[in-house]
Structures are given as C-alpha cells and as structure tokens.
Amino acid sequence: MQEAQFIGLLWTIGILAEAMTGALAAGRKQMDLFGVVIIGCATAIGGGTLRDILLGNYPLIWVENWHYLLAIALASLLTVVIAPVMRYLSKLFLAIDALGLAVFSIVGAQKSLMLGFSPVVAVVMGLVTGVFGGVIRDILCNQVPLIFQKELYAVISLLTAGLYILLLQYQVEEWLNLLVCLATGFSLRMLALKYHWSMPTFDYQSGTDNPMH
Amino acid sequence: MQEAQFIGLLWTIGILAEAMTGALAAGRKQMDLFGVVIIGCATAIGGGTLRDILLGNYPLIWVENWHYLLAIALASLLTVVIAPVMRYLSKLFLAIDALGLAVFSIVGAQKSLMLGFSPVVAVVMGLVTGVFGGVIRDILCNQVPLIFQKELYAVISLLTAGLYILLLQYQVEEWLNLLVCLATGFSLRMLALKYHWSMPTFDYQSGTDNPMH
Amino acid sequence: MQEAQFIGLLWTIGILAEAMTGALAAGRKQMDLFGVVIIGCATAIGGGTLRDILLGNYPLIWVENWHYLLAIALASLLTVVIAPVMRYLSKLFLAIDALGLAVFSIVGAQKSLMLGFSPVVAVVMGLVTGVFGGVIRDILCNQVPLIFQKELYAVISLLTAGLYILLLQYQVEEWLNLLVCLATGFSLRMLALKYHWSMPTFDYQSGTDNPMH
C-alpha cells in the first residue's frame, strides 16, 4: 500500500465517522431524516469544502466524485438504525473521531502545500479541514460551536498539521511522518478526553454594549 | 414564449415571493428595515449563490445583473407595508412558495447540467438552489432550519430535480418535461401542507457527550 | 504618504480593532482561548473574505499574506489580557470601530471597482466588507446579528460606500474624497450611538406558519 492509499483509506473512515456524529447531533435536535442526512454531509465534508472555497480550489472533491456524497448519506441514515447500539460504542466513536481529527488536519495541510500555499496557510487549512465540519454542524443545529468551549480539539488539529509540515521540512520520510503525526494527534485527543484537558476560557461580562449614552 | 423565458418568468416570481417570506421571518424577530432587506435577499438568492460558490461558477447572477438585487430589496420593503394584508393571503403565498420550490429545483439542476456536471451533482444542486435560501434565512434568524423539522419540503426538491433529469435522459420534449415537473413538485408540496406529510424524525437523547471519564 | 498607504494604515487599525471586539464577544460566551482567536479572526476578516468569495476574487488577502492572520490572532489574545482595562476604553473602541466601519466600506467599494464591477455591486460589496464580519461573529456566537436590530450601522456603511463612488464619478480628488467619506461615516456612526438613531423595526407576529390545515 502506498502512503496516498493509506491516508485515503483513513480519510474515508474519518468522513464516515464524522457523518455519524453529525447524524447523532441531528437526532439530539429531533430532526427528520432529511435533516439527518444534511447535517451528516455538512459535518463530514463541510471542513474540506470550506477549505477549498477559501483557497479557490475547484472542482470540490464531492462535486467531482459524488460517490462520497452517497456513502456519507448512507452512513448518516445507517446511524438512525443503529443508534440504540451506538451508546455502547461511544468510546469506539470517540477514538475514530480522534483519528479523523488527525487525518483531516494532515490531509488539509498536504493539499494546501501541493497547491503551492505557504506553510502557515497550510497549517491554518489543516485546522479548517479538521474542525470546521463540526463548526458548521453546530451552526446548523443552532448551538454555540462545541470546539470553542470544550476539551482540547482545535489546538490538536493545529499541532498535528504543524508537526506534519515541520517534519516535511526536515525531510523525514513520508511514511514515518504520517505515522508520527497520526499517533501524536490521536494520543493527544484521547488524553484530552480522559483527563479533561482544556484551554483556559475567557469570561467577559460587560455591563453595557453602548457606553455612549 | 420560449421555455427559457417561461421558466425565467416563474423564477423571477419565485425569488420575489421568497424575498417576502424572508421579510416576514425578519419581522417575527423584530428586525429593523435593514435586517428585513438582508434577510429578504439572503432567502431569495442565498440558495443559488451557495450553488454557484460550490460549483465555482462566476460571476454570480446578482453580481452580473444587479437589477435582481434591487427588485428583491423592494419586494422585502413592500412586505413591511402590506404585512397586515398578508395574513389573508397566506394560502396564496404558500402556493407561490410551493411553485418557487419546484422552479428553483429545476433551474438548479438545469444550470449544473449546462456546466457539464453529472446528473447526481445536478440533483444535489437542484436541492441546494431550492432549499438553502431558507436554511440561510433561518441561520441568520438564529433558529434551527425549519426544513430539517417540518412538512416535506427538501425531499420534494430532490424528487422534482431528479424527475427533470430522468425525463431529460429519456428525451422527453422540454416543454412537457417542465410542465410535468412543475406540476409534480407543486402538487406534492401542497398535499404535504394539507395532509401534514412529513419525514420520520430521529430522536436521540444521549446521556453524555463524553463517556471517557 | 500616498492615499493607498494612508487607507492601508487605517484598514490595519480597523481589522485589529474588529479582532478585539470579536474577542470580547467570545468572552461574553465564555469561550476558550481558541474560540477567542477564531471569533477574532472571523470578525476582522470575515467581511472581506465573504466579499472576495462572492466576487470570485482569489487568492484571499490573508491567504496571500498570512502576517495579517498572525497579527489578528495576537490582537485577539491581547484582548484577554487587557480586558479589565477595556471597560474604561470602551468609548475609544467604539470610536475605532466607527472608523473601521467607514474604512472597510470604502475599501470594499474600491476593490470591487478595481475588479471592474458596477457601482451598485461596489456599494453592496462595501456593505459586505463593512458589516458581515460582525454578522459572522454573531452567527458563531449563536445570536441574532446585532446589526439587524440596533443603532444605525449597516445603513452608514451603504451611505459611506455610496458617497465614495458618487464623488469618484464627479472626479473629486482622491485624498479629498477619502477624507470626506471617512469623516461622514465616522460622524454618522458616533451620532447614531450618542442619540440612539435607529431604523424603524418590523414586528410581524403571525398566528401560524401553516394556514392550510
């Protein structure tokens, strides 16, 4: 197996897992099956879509290859069927989601570099790919995006994408680079969940928005 | 009258009607006249704009032809004036909205096919054109998008766009195809409203988001 | 100093000030430091980014020149540190925000004209540049966008962009045009805050969304 195939396989697992977490979020809002599919799709491919729109990189992956859309829609609907079982699989899902976070961050950085953008932009696009599917999901579900409030998530995406680019610049062999970054991103996320690592929060309660009167 | 002129006329009626439903939604949130115009514009042209951004199809219709923007803004403001009467016209508006749903779905599919995209992408873009104006309206009004929760709406968009493409592939004459699809989409939507047809909903109440601790 | 340098300097001050208002909004929602940076970035460059996506104008400014992103992120984090002092600086901030509104509106209109778009589109893009950073901030913070409900804000953006284009067409000297438009936009905004000028609101309470049953 080539590196590209390996990362492609993980990416496919990742978008299907994200589709399922999106479907569950839709279920928490008692949406209908159509809403479940839309939220599933937005969660799975929203981050990559936003990245490509920001970079002006057309055609979008799912526009060029609609089989991804179909697979994501089916994964979303499957979630409705197997939801009763998913309670018992929640640790498995958190693990797949952690892996997906690392994979998306690496893939987003890779694509940006291949398109000729700078390393800083590549790290930012790793972040966009890794976490904005979840942000779009939360906006569509009318709630403050979770990743702005909870355990370390987005920072791990930044670190993973940054590490990948750093090792690339030191000409570390591609396979080794991928494995190190996947392991780092995945482990950090699992540890953050287990030990409730989180960023400091900023609590600003102003008396008024308009002190001019 | 040519087919293109006929569908163009219906499309214009459709965007003006959508602008008015957007203006009413802004009124339910006690927005100011500026908010009314913005929500009216976003509802009327948000779906088509999102479609063209996703396809990378520039320039956008309203950027190339600003007369549409002006007409939509005026329709939004007119809504404020005639709002007291609109209560009595609500059935008429639901009918125009149902027609607009069918027209937008067909137009979105047509445009995608003309740009050389696959039939599956064309159906998805019919859906995006048909329903995402309403989704953007609901996001700007800070509520869970209605179409994810209420009577059949989005599915009718999918069916209408899909039927259009199917008949096109069987080389049904364009006029006949348009009339059949318009009648089908319109009738299904009116029946869905009358008999409260809706999709099954998915209700998922999980105990915790983080089973790792 | 050239006109372009002068307006560029004001623009830089403007995006940094917007980043800080974004950071404060994140603090009102008790977001973590990562959320603070994201909301700061979205507020500062969201309007210009949306404008360039709507116009298909690539690469985006911050993709081409990532130093802006870094400066915005640092300004957002700095806000957390100096928040206790900012209560006493709120009038200063409102003044910088008013200046930023005028600058963004002028810059948005200028860019659109330079890209060859019509004056009407340029005014609309002045508006998008001037106010949609704040709209995106409010969507990410899960609240109805302030500018649809409060003191005159968006209309001042429209007026400023429109005045700039009008004076341009009468071939008013560029420096004079800039100063007149900045003074007009800034003064109108400060007066609107001081005297609570606002647009009429539209209050529409309908009994039902579905009169078909």
TrEMBL record, chains A, B, C:
<feature type="transmembrane region" description="Helical">
    <location>
        <begin position="116"/>
        <end position="140"/>
    </location>
</feature>
<protein>
    <submittedName>
        <fullName>Trimeric intracellular cation channel family protein</fullName>
    </submittedName>
</protein>
<feature type="transmembrane region" description="Helical">
    <location>
        <begin position="33"/>
        <end position="54"/>
    </location>
</feature>
<feature type="transmembrane region" description="Helical">
    <location>
        <begin position="66"/>
        <end position="85"/>
    </location>
</feature>
<feature type="domain" description="Glycine transporter">
    <location>
        <begin position="10"/>
        <end position="83"/>
    </location>
</feature>
<comment type="similarity">
    <text>Belongs to the UPF0126 family.</text>
</comment>
<feature type="domain" description="Glycine transporter">
    <location>
        <begin position="95"/>
        <end position="167"/>
    </location>
</feature>
<keyword id="KW-1003">Cell membrane</keyword>
<keyword id="KW-0812">Transmembrane</keyword>
<keyword id="KW-0472">Membrane</keyword>
<feature type="transmembrane region" description="Helical">
    <location>
        <begin position="175"/>
        <end position="192"/>
    </location>
</feature>
<keyword id="KW-1133">Transmembrane helix</keyword>
<dbReference type="GO" id="GO:0005886">
    <property type="term" value="C:plasma membrane"/>
</dbReference>
<feature type="transmembrane region" description="Helical">
    <location>
        <begin position="6"/>
        <end position="26"/>
    </location>
</feature>
<dbReference type="Pfam" id="PF03458">
    <property type="entry name" value="Gly_transporter"/>
</dbReference>
<feature type="transmembrane region" description="Helical">
    <location>
        <begin position="152"/>
        <end position="169"/>
    </location>
</feature>
<dbReference type="InterPro" id="IPR005115">
    <property type="entry name" value="Gly_transporter"/>
</dbReference>
